[in-house]
Design goal:
The protein has 265 residues and is α/β, with parallel strands linked by helices. The chain has 6 helices and 13 strands. The termini are far apart.
């Protein structure tokens, strides 16, 4: 009898209208192509690069996204706060202080059994919020009472912090997937105790851009050091993602595969 596996497709930060277009146009075909059982996506930049709206949540769900994770920009649109409170499949980083809206972990049913999802945010070169290591370990211990399959979205700036968390949780979770920097890294691997890892899944957004922004504005900001607001580039788009295959019984990752799909819209 074949052992059960669960295929989780995780999309890197959805960035602005180009990123949403890529999801609306390409995700359902991607699900078929990779035989995904569950789809997760970081949606904190979906609305013009800053935050996400309820309307975009519904459209992403209709396109095939099961769980939406986030990061430091989740607070930009106040009308999302009630969904953070009322919906289980929209997460904000768990290591924000108490009393902020929403939750940082959840469990979703898949064909192979329950899958735990944890959203954490780093502190190096970011806001000094609660410790993601301690918070993450506590949540892992809670979720492992329900399932061995657990995916962590670690929304962080520094590679050192991301790798350290992955090693810290190796063997306790199925995957630690880095988000936030919008550049897909080529270091996907299975750690010694069975946890899949990649430093950054990348960006689902405009291909011809500077981490999603109009290049000319990014260049001007570097030349002048003026606080110019970023604007999302409106170019052809792409989906950066990873596919993680997990053993449904042990929760260990069988494989992790980088994905980059380009679209001319």
């Amino acid at each position: 009898m074949a052992e059960k596996t669960v295929a989780a497709l995780f999309l890197g930060d959805i960035c602005g209208q180009p990123g949403c277009r890529a999801v609306f146009i390409g995700l359902k075909q991607l699900i078929k192509e990779y035989r995904a059982d569950v789809v997760l996506a970081n949606g904190e930049n979906a609305d013009d690069g800053f935050g996400i709206t309820p309307e975009l949540v519904y459209r992403l769900e209709n396109s095939g996204v099961d769980v939406i994770t986030s990061g430091n920009h989740i607070w930009q649109k106040h009308d999302i706060y009630h969904l953070l409170e009322s919906r289980n499949n929209i997460l904000r980083p768990a290591n924000y202080p108490p009393k902020v809206p929403g939750k940082g972990a959840m469990v979703i049913e898949t064909k192979g059994g329950p899958l735990g999802v944890i959203n954490l945010q780093g502190r190096q070169s970011m806001m000094a919020i609660d410790c993601p290591f301690r918070t993450g370990r506590e949540l892992v211990e809670q979720l492992r009472q329900k399932t061995r399959m657990i995916i962590v979205d670690f929304h962080a700036e520094q590679s050192e912090e991301k790798e350290a968390l992955a090693v810290y949780l190796d063997g306790k979770v199925s995957a630690v997937l880095g988000t936030h920097t919008h550049v897909q890294t080529a270091d996907e691997r299975i750690l010694p105790n069975g946890t899949a890892y990649i430093t950054d899944v990348g960006m689902t957004g405009p291909e011809h851009s500077v981490i999603g922004s109009i290049p000319e504005l990014s260049i001007e900001r570097q030349l002048t050091q003026m606080p110019l607001r970023s604007e999302i580039a409106d170019t052809s788009t792409m989906i950066n993602a990873v596919m993680v295959i997990m053993d449904a019984q042990t929760g260990k990752a069988r494989s992790i595969q980088r994905i980059c799909k380009r679209y001319s819209v």
